[in-house]
Write the C-alpha cells for this entry.
Amino acid sequence: MEFILTEEQLAVKEAAREFAQQTLLPGVIERDTHMTYPTEQVRGMAEMGFLGMMVSPEYGGGGMDTLSYVLAMEELSKVDNSCSVIVSVNNSLVCWGLETYGSEEQKKKYLTKLATGESIGAFCLSEPEAGSDATSQRTTAVDMGDHYIINGTKNWITNGGSSQIHLVIAQTDVEKGHKGINAFIVETDWDGVVIGAKEDKLGIRASDTHTILYNDVKVPKENRIGDDGFGFKFAMKVLSGGRIGIAAQALGIAAGAYELSVKYAKEREAFGKPISQHQAIAFKLADMSTDIEAARLMVYRAAWMKDNGLDYTSGAAMAKLIASDAAMKHTVEAVQVHGGYGFVKEYHVERLMRDAKITQIYEGTSEIQKLVISRNILKGTLYEPMWKPSNS
Ligand code: CAA
C-alpha cells in the first residue's frame, strides 16, 4: 500500500494552492456577495490548464491522472468553490464524458476547445421533476431522420449562462424507459436555446446556475453521444466520475475551514492564553483533523480506483458521502472555533459553511449515494475488485 504522492502530483497540488491563494482569494468575498461570475479567474484557470486536466494532450488537455485532478480540486476548494465547481463540471462531466464516449469528430470539434477553456461546458440532466429520479426525463428529443428536435426544461444547471456547449440528456422513446434516453451535444447559440433565470443561492453564489429552456432546438444526428439509447448509462457513468470531483471539493472545503481554524486558534487569546491551549478547542481541532484525514483517504482511494481501471461506482459514492458530511460538520465547527468572528464574512469560514451544503446535494444527494452503495452491497460487488493483486 503506497501513500506517497509523486513529484508531479505534488507539483500540481502546489501550483493549485499558489493559484488559489494569489488569484482566487482576492475578491472572493465580493464575488460571493454580489453573485459575480468569476470571468477573469476562469481565464486564469484555463491558462493554468485546470479546465482539461485529465484530457489527453492530443485534444489540448494536461493528460494527468484523476489523483492530480483531485489534488487540484482540493486546493482550489479551500478558497473558492464557485470556481472549483466550474473546474469539476468541465473536467469530470463534460470533458471526461466526451473523451470517453464521444466520436472522433465530436472530440475534434468540441473537446479541444473545452479542454483549453476556449469553451465552457454544462451538464444538463436535472429537471423540475427529475432530480434524484433521473430516469423520469421529460425533455424530449424527437428523431427526425438526420436530426433531432429537443424540447424541455432543465434546472439548476451549473455554468448555465456562461457555457457554450451543453451535454443535454433527453427522452427519445418513452416506451423504452431509461433505454430510450439519449445524450446530445448542443451549442448554446443555436436557435431555441433560452437561458432562463439565474438562481440566487445559499452557497457557491458566484457560480452561474440557471434554468435552461430548449424550444424546438434542431440537433444534428452526429451530435448524439454513443449508440441510440445510451444516454442514461452515459449520465450514470459520467456522474460516477463527477462524484470524485465533488468529493474532492467537499474535502477542500473541510480542509480549508480546518486550516483557518488552526491559524485562528493559535492567534486568538482568551483567559490569558491562545484558545488552542484550551482543551475545548484543541479537541475540536483533533476531531476535525481526524475526520478530514479519513475523508481524504476515501477521496484519494476513489481516484486511485479510477486510475487503475477498477469499478469505482461505490468508491466514488462513499467518498462523496463521507467528504460532504465532513465538510458540513466541520465548517460548522470552524465557525464555532472562530466565535463571533466566524459569523462575519471577513474570516471566510461562514462562506465555506454555506458552500459545504451543496456537496451533500449536487451530483447525487447523500441519500442517492447510500442507494448506490447499498445496491452494490446487495449485488455483492462492493469489494470484489479491490484488495486483490490483479494476478490472483
Ligand atoms: N454506471 C453504469 N450504469 C448504471 C449506473 C452506473 N453507475 N447506475 C445505473 N446504471 C444502469 C443500470 O445498470 C440500469 O441498466 P440496465 O437496466 O441495463 O441494467 C440503468 O442504469 C437504470 O438503473 P437503475 O435501475 O438503478 O435506475 P433507478 O432509476 O432505480 O436509479 C439512480 C438510478 C442511481 C437513482 C440514478 O437515477 C441517480 O444517480 N440519480 C441521481 C442523479 C444525479 O446524480 N443528479 C445530479 C445532477 S447533475 C449535477 O448536479 C451537476 C452539476 O451541475 C454540479
